Amino acid sequence: MTLIAVGINYNTAPVSLRERLAFPADILDYTLKTLTQVRGVNEAAILSTCNRTEIYCQAENSDQTPLIDWLGATKNIAPAEFAPYLYHYLDGQSIRHMFRVACGLDSMILGEPQILGQMKTAYHAANQAGALGRNLSKLFQHTFSAAKKVRTDTAICSSPVSVAFAAVQLAQQIFDKLSEQTALLIGAGETIELTARHLHQHGVGRIIIANRTFDKAHALATQFNGFAIALSELPNHLAEADIVVSSTASQLPILGKGRVESAIKKRRHKPMFMVDLAVPRDIEAEVEQLPDVYLYTVDDLRNTVNQNLDSRRRAAEQAEEIIDTQVEHFLSWLRSQGAQQTITDYRQQAESTRDAVLEKALAQLQNGANPEEVLQRLAHALTNKLIHTPCVQLRDAGANERHDLIAASREIFKLK
Asked: Hey, which bits of 25-102 come out as E strands?
Protein backbone atom coordinates (compact mmCIF):
# COMPACT_ATOMS: atom_id res chain seq x y z
CA MET A 1 0.00 0.00 0.00
CA THR A 2 1.16 3.56 -0.77
CA LEU A 3 0.20 6.94 0.66
CA ILE A 4 -0.10 9.58 -2.08
CA ALA A 5 -0.54 13.35 -1.97
CA VAL A 6 -1.12 15.20 -5.26
CA GLY A 7 -2.03 18.86 -5.61
CA ILE A 8 -1.47 22.43 -6.70
CA ASN A 9 -1.07 25.53 -4.57
CA TYR A 10 -0.36 29.25 -4.75
CA ASN A 11 3.34 28.53 -5.36
CA THR A 12 2.87 26.19 -8.30
CA ALA A 13 -0.23 27.51 -10.11
CA PRO A 14 -1.90 30.89 -10.77
CA VAL A 15 -5.35 31.64 -9.40
CA SER A 16 -6.81 31.27 -12.91
CA LEU A 17 -5.94 27.55 -12.82
CA ARG A 18 -6.58 26.98 -9.11
CA GLU A 19 -10.16 28.21 -9.44
CA ARG A 20 -10.80 25.69 -12.23
CA LEU A 21 -9.58 22.83 -10.01
CA ALA A 22 -11.39 23.92 -6.83
CA PHE A 23 -14.04 21.67 -5.27
CA PRO A 24 -17.02 23.46 -3.64
CA ALA A 25 -18.24 21.96 -0.37
CA ASP A 26 -21.67 21.09 -1.77
CA ILE A 27 -20.26 18.57 -4.29
CA LEU A 28 -17.53 17.04 -2.11
CA ASP A 29 -19.61 14.08 -0.96
CA TYR A 30 -20.36 12.89 -4.50
CA THR A 31 -16.85 13.76 -5.69
CA LEU A 32 -15.20 11.70 -2.95
CA LYS A 33 -17.40 8.71 -3.73
CA THR A 34 -16.32 8.82 -7.38
CA LEU A 35 -12.69 9.24 -6.32
CA THR A 36 -12.73 6.05 -4.23
CA GLN A 37 -13.97 4.19 -7.31
CA VAL A 38 -10.78 5.08 -9.21
CA ARG A 39 -8.66 2.02 -9.96
CA GLY A 40 -6.25 1.30 -7.11
CA VAL A 41 -7.63 3.94 -4.70
CA ASN A 42 -8.72 2.51 -1.35
CA GLU A 43 -9.07 5.65 0.79
CA ALA A 44 -9.23 9.32 -0.19
CA ALA A 45 -9.76 12.89 1.01
CA ILE A 46 -9.77 16.28 -0.75
CA LEU A 47 -8.53 19.57 0.69
CA SER A 48 -9.78 22.52 -1.38
CA THR A 49 -9.13 26.14 -0.34
CA CYS A 50 -8.47 29.42 -2.11
CA ASN A 51 -4.74 28.65 -2.06
CA ARG A 52 -4.63 24.93 -2.80
CA THR A 53 -6.39 21.81 -4.01
CA GLU A 54 -4.87 18.57 -2.74
CA ILE A 55 -5.88 14.92 -2.98
CA TYR A 56 -4.74 12.48 -0.29
CA CYS A 57 -5.03 8.76 -1.01
CA GLN A 58 -4.06 5.36 0.16
CA ALA A 59 -3.56 3.38 -3.03
CA GLU A 60 -2.48 -0.08 -4.01
CA ASN A 61 0.61 1.28 -5.76
CA SER A 62 2.41 4.56 -6.51
CA ASP A 63 0.95 5.06 -10.00
CA GLN A 64 -0.67 8.52 -9.97
CA THR A 65 -1.89 8.46 -13.58
CA PRO A 66 -5.42 7.28 -12.61
CA LEU A 67 -5.70 10.18 -10.13
CA ILE A 68 -4.61 12.75 -12.70
CA ASP A 69 -6.97 11.31 -15.31
CA TRP A 70 -9.82 11.36 -12.78
CA LEU A 71 -9.11 15.01 -11.89
CA GLY A 72 -9.06 16.01 -15.54
CA ALA A 73 -12.31 14.17 -16.30
CA THR A 74 -14.05 15.51 -13.18
CA LYS A 75 -13.12 19.11 -13.97
CA ASN A 76 -13.35 18.72 -17.76
CA ILE A 77 -9.77 19.90 -18.18
CA ALA A 78 -7.15 18.12 -20.26
CA PRO A 79 -4.44 16.75 -17.93
CA ALA A 80 -1.80 18.42 -20.09
CA GLU A 81 -3.18 21.81 -18.97
CA PHE A 82 -2.59 21.26 -15.26
CA ALA A 83 -0.16 18.33 -14.88
CA PRO A 84 2.94 20.59 -15.14
CA TYR A 85 1.70 22.53 -12.09
CA LEU A 86 1.15 19.47 -9.87
CA TYR A 87 3.37 18.30 -7.04
CA HIS A 88 3.48 14.67 -5.92
CA TYR A 89 4.48 13.04 -2.63
CA LEU A 90 4.66 9.38 -1.62
CA ASP A 91 4.55 7.65 1.77
CA GLY A 92 6.83 9.46 4.27
CA GLN A 93 6.91 12.60 2.15
CA SER A 94 3.09 12.57 1.93
CA ILE A 95 2.89 12.37 5.72
CA ARG A 96 5.39 15.20 6.13
CA HIS A 97 3.52 17.33 3.60
CA MET A 98 0.18 16.91 5.39
CA PHE A 99 1.80 17.80 8.72
CA ARG A 100 3.42 20.92 7.22
CA VAL A 101 0.18 22.02 5.59
CA ALA A 102 -1.81 21.62 8.82
CA CYS A 103 0.82 23.58 10.78
CA GLY A 104 0.72 26.47 8.32
CA LEU A 105 4.32 25.87 7.21
CA ASP A 106 3.23 25.53 3.58
CA SER A 107 0.87 28.52 3.63
CA MET A 108 1.23 31.84 1.85
CA ILE A 109 1.23 33.42 5.29
CA LEU A 110 3.52 31.36 7.50
CA GLY A 111 1.71 29.79 10.43
CA GLU A 112 -1.77 31.01 9.45
CA PRO A 113 -4.32 29.17 11.63
CA GLN A 114 -7.24 28.84 9.18
CA ILE A 115 -5.67 25.94 7.30
CA LEU A 116 -5.98 23.59 10.28
CA GLY A 117 -9.74 24.18 10.38
CA GLN A 118 -9.90 23.61 6.62
CA MET A 119 -7.96 20.37 7.04
CA LYS A 120 -10.45 19.23 9.69
CA THR A 121 -13.32 20.10 7.33
CA ALA A 122 -11.67 17.95 4.64
CA TYR A 123 -11.40 15.09 7.13
CA HIS A 124 -15.05 15.32 8.20
CA ALA A 125 -16.22 15.49 4.57
CA ALA A 126 -14.21 12.39 3.65
CA ASN A 127 -15.39 10.56 6.75
CA GLN A 128 -19.02 11.42 6.03
CA ALA A 129 -18.64 10.25 2.43
CA GLY A 130 -17.28 6.90 3.64
CA ALA A 131 -13.99 7.57 1.82
CA LEU A 132 -11.71 7.02 4.83
CA GLY A 133 -10.33 3.75 6.13
CA ARG A 134 -8.08 2.84 9.02
CA ASN A 135 -4.79 4.28 7.72
CA LEU A 136 -5.88 7.62 6.26
CA SER A 137 -8.19 8.26 9.21
CA LYS A 138 -5.30 7.60 11.60
CA LEU A 139 -3.06 9.88 9.52
CA PHE A 140 -5.53 12.75 9.82
CA GLN A 141 -5.77 12.27 13.58
CA HIS A 142 -1.99 12.26 13.86
CA THR A 143 -1.85 15.35 11.63
CA PHE A 144 -4.13 17.24 14.01
CA SER A 145 -2.04 16.14 17.00
CA ALA A 146 1.18 17.26 15.29
CA ALA A 147 -0.35 20.66 14.45
CA LYS A 148 -1.52 21.10 18.04
CA LYS A 149 1.96 20.29 19.36
CA VAL A 150 3.60 22.76 16.97
CA ARG A 151 1.18 25.54 17.93
CA THR A 152 1.60 24.78 21.64
CA ASP A 153 5.38 24.38 21.69
CA THR A 154 6.43 27.13 19.26
CA ALA A 155 5.64 30.79 18.53
CA ILE A 156 4.33 29.99 15.05
CA CYS A 157 1.10 31.92 15.76
CA SER A 158 2.63 34.75 17.76
CA SER A 159 1.83 37.48 15.21
CA PRO A 160 -1.66 38.25 13.83
CA VAL A 161 -0.76 37.54 10.21
CA SER A 162 -3.34 36.10 7.78
CA VAL A 163 -4.76 36.86 4.36
CA ALA A 164 -7.48 38.88 6.08
CA PHE A 165 -4.93 40.75 8.16
CA ALA A 166 -2.81 41.39 5.06
CA ALA A 167 -5.87 42.86 3.31
CA VAL A 168 -6.47 45.24 6.21
CA GLN A 169 -2.79 46.21 6.30
CA LEU A 170 -2.97 47.03 2.60
CA ALA A 171 -6.10 49.14 3.19
CA GLN A 172 -4.21 51.10 5.85
CA GLN A 173 -1.50 51.88 3.30
CA ILE A 174 -4.06 53.19 0.79
CA PHE A 175 -6.28 55.17 3.18
CA ASP A 176 -4.88 57.63 5.70
CA LYS A 177 -7.72 57.06 8.16
CA LEU A 178 -9.76 53.88 8.24
CA SER A 179 -12.12 55.64 10.63
CA GLU A 180 -13.44 57.67 7.70
CA GLN A 181 -13.99 54.68 5.39
CA THR A 182 -16.88 52.29 4.77
CA ALA A 183 -16.05 48.61 4.27
CA LEU A 184 -18.35 46.30 2.33
CA LEU A 185 -17.65 42.64 3.05
CA ILE A 186 -19.21 40.02 0.78
CA GLY A 187 -19.72 36.59 2.34
CA ALA A 188 -20.13 35.41 5.92
CA GLY A 189 -17.50 32.68 6.28
CA GLU A 190 -14.40 32.48 8.43
CA THR A 191 -12.25 34.71 6.21
CA ILE A 192 -14.85 37.49 6.12
CA GLU A 193 -15.37 37.20 9.88
CA LEU A 194 -11.62 37.55 10.41
CA THR A 195 -11.50 40.54 8.04
CA ALA A 196 -14.38 42.20 9.88
CA ARG A 197 -12.64 41.59 13.20
CA HIS A 198 -9.39 43.20 12.01
CA LEU A 199 -11.21 46.15 10.44
CA HIS A 200 -13.22 46.67 13.62
CA GLN A 201 -10.07 46.52 15.76
CA HIS A 202 -8.42 49.11 13.50
CA GLY A 203 -11.37 51.46 13.88
CA VAL A 204 -12.95 51.34 10.42
CA GLY A 205 -15.79 53.84 10.16
CA ARG A 206 -18.57 51.52 9.00
CA ILE A 207 -18.99 47.84 8.09
CA ILE A 208 -21.61 46.47 5.68
CA ILE A 209 -21.87 42.70 5.30
CA ALA A 210 -23.62 41.18 2.29
CA ASN A 211 -24.48 37.52 2.06
CA ARG A 212 -26.81 35.27 0.12
CA THR A 213 -28.38 34.29 3.46
CA PHE A 214 -29.41 37.49 5.21
CA ASP A 215 -29.59 35.89 8.67
CA LYS A 216 -25.92 34.91 8.50
CA ALA A 217 -24.97 38.41 7.40
CA HIS A 218 -27.02 39.90 10.22
CA ALA A 219 -25.50 37.59 12.85
CA LEU A 220 -21.98 38.52 11.75
CA ALA A 221 -22.68 42.24 11.38
CA THR A 222 -24.13 42.40 14.88
CA GLN A 223 -20.76 41.35 16.35
CA PHE A 224 -19.06 44.42 14.90
CA ASN A 225 -21.83 47.03 15.03
CA GLY A 226 -22.24 46.59 11.31
CA PHE A 227 -25.10 46.71 8.83
CA ALA A 228 -26.35 43.59 7.02
CA ILE A 229 -27.80 43.33 3.51
CA ALA A 230 -28.86 40.48 1.26
CA LEU A 231 -26.65 39.77 -1.73
CA SER A 232 -29.45 40.95 -4.01
CA GLU A 233 -29.13 44.42 -2.46
CA LEU A 234 -25.47 44.70 -3.40
CA PRO A 235 -26.00 47.05 -6.40
CA ASN A 236 -27.79 49.55 -4.14
CA HIS A 237 -24.92 49.80 -1.64
CA LEU A 238 -21.77 49.22 -3.69
CA ALA A 239 -21.21 52.93 -4.28
CA GLU A 240 -21.08 53.49 -0.51
CA ALA A 241 -18.01 51.28 -0.16
CA ASP A 242 -14.46 52.58 0.00
CA ILE A 243 -13.20 49.10 0.81
CA VAL A 244 -14.64 45.90 -0.70
CA VAL A 245 -13.49 42.47 0.46
CA SER A 246 -15.14 39.42 -1.03
CA SER A 247 -14.82 35.76 -0.09
CA THR A 248 -17.70 33.48 -1.07
CA ALA A 249 -18.09 29.98 -2.48
CA SER A 250 -19.85 31.20 -5.61
CA GLN A 251 -18.85 29.46 -8.83
CA LEU A 252 -19.58 32.61 -10.87
CA PRO A 253 -18.37 36.21 -10.38
CA ILE A 254 -20.57 38.32 -8.10
CA LEU A 255 -19.22 41.70 -9.24
CA GLY A 256 -18.65 42.44 -12.90
CA LYS A 257 -16.90 45.36 -14.58
CA GLY A 258 -20.16 47.11 -15.51
CA ARG A 259 -21.59 47.07 -12.00
CA VAL A 260 -18.36 48.39 -10.46
CA GLU A 261 -18.08 51.06 -13.16
CA SER A 262 -21.61 52.25 -12.31
CA ALA A 263 -20.69 52.45 -8.64
CA ILE A 264 -17.54 54.46 -9.41
CA LYS A 265 -19.63 56.98 -11.37
CA LYS A 266 -22.00 57.38 -8.42
CA ARG A 267 -18.95 57.96 -6.21
CA ARG A 268 -17.80 60.66 -8.64
CA HIS A 269 -14.64 58.65 -9.23
CA LYS A 270 -13.62 58.51 -5.59
CA PRO A 271 -11.14 55.57 -5.40
CA MET A 272 -12.34 52.11 -4.37
CA PHE A 273 -10.05 49.48 -2.84
CA MET A 274 -11.14 45.90 -3.64
CA VAL A 275 -9.72 42.58 -2.44
CA ASP A 276 -10.95 39.31 -3.93
CA LEU A 277 -10.06 36.46 -1.56
CA ALA A 278 -12.25 33.88 -3.29
CA VAL A 279 -11.30 30.98 -5.55
CA PRO A 280 -13.01 30.90 -8.02
CA ARG A 281 -12.88 34.70 -8.11
CA ASP A 282 -15.87 36.77 -6.98
CA ILE A 283 -14.78 39.89 -8.89
CA GLU A 284 -14.19 39.81 -12.64
CA ALA A 285 -10.53 40.33 -13.53
CA GLU A 286 -11.52 43.11 -15.97
CA VAL A 287 -12.47 45.30 -13.01
CA GLU A 288 -8.81 46.15 -12.45
CA GLN A 289 -8.87 48.00 -15.81
CA LEU A 290 -11.02 50.73 -14.25
CA PRO A 291 -8.84 53.77 -13.43
CA ASP A 292 -10.28 54.47 -9.97
CA VAL A 293 -10.27 50.90 -8.68
CA TYR A 294 -7.43 49.14 -6.85
CA LEU A 295 -8.19 45.42 -7.22
CA TYR A 296 -6.09 42.76 -5.49
CA THR A 297 -6.43 38.96 -5.50
CA VAL A 298 -5.06 36.44 -3.02
CA ASP A 299 -1.94 36.17 -5.17
CA ASP A 300 -1.29 39.91 -4.98
CA LEU A 301 -1.24 39.83 -1.18
CA ARG A 302 2.12 38.13 -1.18
CA ASN A 303 3.73 41.56 -1.35
CA THR A 304 2.14 42.55 1.96
CA VAL A 305 2.82 39.47 4.09
CA ASN A 306 6.53 39.91 4.79
CA GLN A 307 6.02 41.89 7.99
CA ASN A 308 5.52 40.28 11.39
CA LEU A 309 7.07 37.05 10.13
CA ASP A 310 10.52 36.98 11.76
CA SER A 311 9.35 35.21 14.90
CA ARG A 312 7.31 32.79 12.80
CA ARG A 313 10.31 31.92 10.68
CA ARG A 314 12.32 31.10 13.79
CA ALA A 315 9.39 29.10 15.13
CA ALA A 316 9.15 27.30 11.78
CA GLU A 317 12.62 25.85 12.32
CA GLN A 318 11.47 24.42 15.64
CA ALA A 319 8.27 23.20 14.01
CA GLU A 320 10.23 21.28 11.35
CA GLU A 321 12.08 19.42 14.11
CA ILE A 322 8.78 18.52 15.80
CA ILE A 323 7.39 17.35 12.46
CA ASP A 324 10.45 15.14 11.88
CA THR A 325 9.69 13.36 15.14
CA GLN A 326 5.96 13.11 14.46
CA VAL A 327 6.53 11.70 10.97
CA GLU A 328 8.74 8.95 12.42
CA HIS A 329 6.07 8.17 15.03
CA PHE A 330 3.44 7.70 12.35
CA LEU A 331 5.76 5.64 10.14
CA SER A 332 6.44 3.40 13.15
CA TRP A 333 2.69 2.96 13.60
CA LEU A 334 2.34 2.08 9.92
CA ARG A 335 5.13 -0.45 10.13
CA SER A 336 3.53 -2.01 13.18
CA GLN A 337 0.38 -2.65 11.17
CA GLY A 338 2.31 -5.22 9.15
CA ALA A 339 2.60 -7.37 12.30
CA GLN A 340 -0.97 -6.81 13.43
CA GLN A 341 -2.40 -9.98 11.89
CA THR A 342 0.37 -12.09 13.44
CA ILE A 343 -0.33 -10.50 16.82
CA THR A 344 -4.05 -11.20 16.44
CA ASP A 345 -3.45 -14.84 15.46
CA TYR A 346 -1.01 -15.38 18.34
CA ARG A 347 -3.43 -13.87 20.85
CA GLN A 348 -6.30 -16.03 19.58
CA GLN A 349 -4.10 -19.14 19.84
CA ALA A 350 -3.13 -18.28 23.44
CA GLU A 351 -6.73 -17.56 24.41
CA SER A 352 -7.85 -20.87 22.89
CA THR A 353 -5.19 -22.70 24.92
CA ARG A 354 -6.25 -20.83 28.06
CA ASP A 355 -9.93 -21.68 27.54
CA ALA A 356 -9.18 -25.39 27.08
CA VAL A 357 -7.08 -25.59 30.25
CA LEU A 358 -9.60 -23.54 32.22
CA GLU A 359 -12.52 -25.71 31.08
CA LYS A 360 -10.70 -28.83 32.30
CA ALA A 361 -9.91 -27.20 35.66
CA LEU A 362 -13.54 -26.13 36.19
CA ALA A 363 -14.71 -29.67 35.47
CA GLN A 364 -12.28 -31.02 38.09
CA LEU A 365 -13.61 -28.53 40.66
CA GLN A 366 -17.18 -29.56 39.94
CA ASN A 367 -16.18 -33.18 40.55
CA GLY A 368 -14.92 -32.24 44.02
CA ALA A 369 -11.18 -32.08 43.38
CA ASN A 370 -8.97 -30.16 45.81
CA PRO A 371 -8.98 -26.48 44.64
CA GLU A 372 -5.32 -25.93 45.47
CA GLU A 373 -4.26 -28.99 43.47
CA VAL A 374 -6.50 -27.94 40.58
CA LEU A 375 -4.86 -24.47 40.49
CA GLN A 376 -1.38 -25.98 40.55
CA ARG A 377 -2.24 -28.38 37.69
CA LEU A 378 -3.86 -25.48 35.74
CA ALA A 379 -0.75 -23.29 36.07
CA HIS A 380 1.55 -26.18 35.11
CA ALA A 381 -0.57 -27.23 32.13
CA LEU A 382 -1.03 -23.68 30.85
CA THR A 383 2.70 -22.98 31.06
CA ASN A 384 3.58 -26.19 29.24
CA LYS A 385 1.07 -25.61 26.47
CA LEU A 386 2.11 -21.97 25.91
CA ILE A 387 5.85 -22.71 25.71
CA HIS A 388 5.70 -26.10 23.97
CA THR A 389 5.58 -24.91 20.36
CA PRO A 390 8.20 -22.11 20.78
CA CYS A 391 10.55 -24.59 22.47
CA VAL A 392 10.16 -27.12 19.65
CA GLN A 393 10.82 -24.41 17.08
CA LEU A 394 13.90 -23.17 18.95
CA ARG A 395 15.35 -26.71 19.15
CA ASP A 396 14.84 -27.06 15.38
CA ALA A 397 16.45 -23.66 14.84
CA GLY A 398 19.48 -24.76 16.86
CA ALA A 399 19.73 -28.03 14.96
CA ASN A 400 19.59 -26.13 11.66
CA GLU A 401 21.96 -23.38 12.84
CA ARG A 402 19.27 -20.74 12.50
CA HIS A 403 21.09 -18.35 14.84
CA ASP A 404 19.08 -15.41 13.47
CA LEU A 405 15.86 -17.02 14.66
CA ILE A 406 17.35 -17.75 18.09
CA ALA A 407 18.57 -14.14 18.42
CA ALA A 408 15.15 -12.81 17.33
CA SER A 409 13.47 -15.05 19.91
CA ARG A 410 15.68 -13.72 22.71
CA GLU A 411 14.70 -10.19 21.64
CA ILE A 412 10.97 -10.97 21.36
CA PHE A 413 10.86 -12.68 24.78
CA LYS A 414 13.27 -10.11 26.32
CA LEU A 415 15.60 -12.80 27.68
CA LYS A 416 18.68 -11.44 29.43
From this structure: 41-48, 52-59, 87-90
